[in-house]
Design a protein that fits this description.
- With about 775 residues, the chain is α+β, with helices and mostly antiparallel strands.
- It contains 26 helices and 17 strands.
- Helix 5 crosses helix 6 and helix 9 packs antiparallel against helix 10.
- The radius of gyration is 42 Å and the shape is elongated.
- The N terminus is likely disordered.
Length: about 775
Amino acid sequence: MELEGRRKFGSFGRGNMSKKLDARFYIVFRCLIYMGLGMGMSCARVLETGAPLGMAMVACSGAGLTGVFALLGAAIGYLLSGGLEWGIRYVAASVLVYTISFVFQELKISKHEFFMPAASACVMAVTALLGNPALGQAMPLYAKIFPETVMAFGGAYFFREALTDTLRMTEGEELKHSTAVLVMAACALMAFARAVLFKTVSVGRVIALLLVMTSAYRGGMLTGAAVGTVFGMAMDVTRISSPFYTMSYAFSGLLSGAFGKRGKVIFTLSFILAGTLSVICVWNTEVYITALFENFCASVIYMALPNRVLNRVGLMLQAVEKGSGEAGLRRFAAGRVRNLSQAYGTLYETVRRNMEEPFNDENIATVFDRAADMVCAECKNKNRCWNSDFMDTLSAMNDATRAMSEKGSLESADLPGYFRESCTHLESFVAAVNGELRSFSYRRQLKAHLQENRNVVWSQYSDIAHILSHVADELGSVNGSDPLAERRMTRLLKSMDIEAQTSVFRDAAGRARVIIESPQLNSLLKIDGILEKLSGVAGVKLCVPAEGGVGSMKLTLIEAEPLAVSVGIAAMKKRGERVSGDKGTYFKTDSGVLCVILSDGMGTGDEAASDSNQVVEILEKFLRSGVDPAVAMKILNSVMLLRSNDSWGYATVDLMCVDLFTGDTCFYKYGAAPSYVMNGKSVSRINGEPLSSRMNGSDGVVPDLVRMHLHPGSTAIIASDGVIAGLEDEWVKAILGKGFEDMKALARSTLKEAERLYGANDDMTVVAVRVEERV
């Protein structure tokens, strides 16, 4: 049976050609984007006549093809939007900035994030001074140069950050990128602000109002006010006047954000009211009738647009709620502790059924007392022997005790002569003493056995301490929650109009886990490619666990392992038996560890099957709970000692654990037959001590342990002792050397050859395991 699908290869040549075409298309598309941005930014105006943003776009584009196309776009934009006489200065500045980027591209200083912004600011200031543009009487030269220089610096800095598509690993980097995207969007709208419909409505300002409304509706008051301030300043800086739009947009975002939870209609009405109040407030200074029309147009468009479109547009503007990663981590740890509780419950029940309260009888003199109660009670001489001559009788008993203890029984000759002569029921008394002596010996043996059982139980306190220590380490792990990934996840879900509580955290091993709780889970699961989208946000490839991944309102995702495993099992019971005494299983824990268990019960038939089934059941519960395999097997050994009593019913254990993240593999053996691993071209035999040596301990002992690292393509065979008998194993190595890729076929071939060599004189089970790369 295969745990993971196999890799499917297509045509190699066709795949390479497709990749080349995709790469070329991406380069062309990227160059066209930079050209369009250069052209658009060059159309934006600062204080009516300044245009530093096109040059800033060239500065952030680098010295490669993207820089060339950005320069081309900026030059076209400058010349088309302002004419040759006005635009030649900015074209020259753009060419100079690109030249600096090209000349210094090999120097280390050019990689500094402030190098090109500083260069563009210097070029803008120098060209402004040399060009000495006609400013009229609106403001002095230095007042015009300063904002252009600042915006050239800021534009180059923020544009570069906004266009960077690398994954941000810290909250600071994420906040910086979001701010840069917001600034770039505001600068782009400065260009569109010049596009006026019917000499009344500015396209750029209407779009800005739509973005403010989206952010206020989704993010609330503070987000709406912040975004309104940014876009308002962008609209105000395009002209020489009072900061009306800054005030109006910020106030509108603040007021309408307070009504974001009251529905779309009430929210829109509050936004229109805020815009109207803003116009009235400055009525005596300037009349902004056009602002009322723009506000109304934006409101109508906002009401008409579907929520899905608005969610995607406002993706970068939404306030993100804090996730519940710490709570998710605690719930995860609580689940493990709960599993441990169930495993210990099984352990307790197994022990309780075999424990009895011991009878405290340590004094051997009680043997004579009990014999006297049985024989002397009806004797006519009892008062003489046990009252008047009590000291003589006691001396006789003491004299006989030593001989009786040495021989293990009492004979008449062991008693003094005066006692033999006076006792009228001597033979009956000796027989009664011997009967009580046998009972005394049995009680002493039982007590010793019970004491041994107590030692086994007491040794488990150390194992419990080890387990709880491991859980405590996991709870106190420095990995914990990932707030940055949680915010990204929440932002993505909100863009899809999914209200959910997200938990993103890493376990003690550093592996990512994602929990999404939402009443809209069914809608989320119907979205095409949702797993890939969530993986992109989390920064790792995610998968749904085999068990408990999807609930009615809860989705659990775990980090996908880079390795996969194929497993094949073949089994045959002993000839003439109804059931097999072997029991095998395999499963993957939620930590990404594949566990393969094979247990061989002592003997054959129903009793052996019962032993092996109990072993596998208990061990599987511990391993699924995250208990260290060595500790789990030590506890299991203790359980079997407690369960067995004098019958010594037992079962061997063979456990293979493969970490599917690293390939590190451990083989644990309790009296199990050898295993074989082909790692590369070499075949290794993995041995453990025989079962007989394991029975000598009075408490659980650690299993034999062999560690190795398995690479993709490595194959292992685990088998019961009915398959691998003695030291003759060349045939096993020969079968492994054939290079089977189908593990079912490998297991069947091994079992068939073992039957041919040894016959079906014992239960036989073969488990074949192959490690592969995940597709």
